[in-house]
Amino acid sequence: MWIWHSEDGSEREIEWVLENGEVVWRLHPLGTADRKREAKMSQPVTEDKVKEDKAVAMQPDRQKPKAMPTPLQATVELVRRGHRELLPQLRQLLKQQPDVFQYVGDLGRQAERAWVDMLGGEDDLLKESVILYADELKKSLAGPNATPLERLTAERIAACWIEIEYHRAWLVQHPQADGSKTAQLHEKRFEAAHRRMERTMMTLASIKKLLPRTIEVQLLQKPTVTSPVESIIGSKVNGEQPPVSNGQATVQATAAMTTHTPINRLNGSMNGHHNRFAALEPTGAK
Amino acid sequence: MAWEVRGHRQVYYRSRRQGDRVVKVYVGHGPLAERAAKLDAEVRARREADRQEARRMEATLEPLDVLRAEAEDGLRLLTLATFFAGGLHQHKGQWRQRRRRWNVDLAQ
Question: Taking CB atoms and an 8 Å cutoff, what residues of chain A touch B43?
Answer without folding.
Answer: none
